UniProtKB/TrEMBL annotation:
Protein's recorded name: ABC transporter substrate-binding protein
InterPro entries on file: ABC_transpt-TYRBP-like, Peripla_BP_I
Stretch forming the signal peptide: 1-24
Tagged with keyword Secreted: no
Amino acid sequence: MAGSQWKKILAAGLCGLMAAGVLAGCGGGSGSGSSSSGGKMKVGIVQIVQHPALDESNKGFVDALNEAGLKDKVEIDEQNAQGDQSNLKAIANRYVSGNYKLIGAISTPAAQAMANATDKIPIICTAISDFENAKLMKSEKAPDSNVTGTNDRGPVDKQVKLIKEIQPNVKKIGIIYNSSEINSVVQAKHLKENCQPLGIDVVELTVNSVNDVQQVAEGFLGGKVDAIYVPTDNIIASSIPTLMAVANREKIPVYGAEVGHVKNGVLASESISFYDIGHRAGQMAAEILKGNKTVKDFPVEGADKTKLYINKSEMETLGIQIPKEVLDRAEMI
């Protein structure tokens, strides 16, 4: 009798183990990486470095996901590469091996690293000047892979017009940027294209790291330029105070491609909103996460409006007289 009872107990134990195994197998299938342990979809958001413009794009992206009703349905893993390409590669590998549902890439280097790591996971990008030149797609009008998003192309024509309004006699405009950033190279090209018909020469200086900015920027001194233009370059954006310290020695007006530059000290900018382009990219991501659309349903979009910003403190430092019609349409910072 005792032996029979032990057999029954052992049989019950084996059945329990088998049931547990079945349940574990089912659990593994539903949580294979695209979802967190709480059943949420895993979304990675990576930016190359921390500075105001990219931070605003990031905020806009996350806000859009939340507004779309996904706050409790996604687990967001935000990463900052601190300007290091090896960090970008490690982050990309982590997202891919974790089978993330979608990746948000903020800046050209971040987008390129993610695209090199996967052609399967949807990658929604923002703060990129030119998707085609960055080799992320053949045509921004018709995405042909797992990548799309929003560009940050500012109105270079309006920037040049603004410089002419403030400095009617401008003859030479300097531009400083990292030549390894394709978006910066594109912006330098657009600046030259817009200056040439006006008889304005463009003086180009390039840097490789933040440590180069002060020494290289000193190449603008000695009357070599009448004004300096700063593109949406990640290295320069992180070094605005350094650049301004050099430019202010000879009271050279510095103009930025976006409002973050003005907040950090440059004189003026006809700026797009990085929050807005990040928000639009987040809306695209939300539609894809919901299963309503795919990457190829979204052509690359740009900002649909700009706003003029002027730094009051820098205007006083330069002792420059800005025309009333310019001041009337500007927001002072």
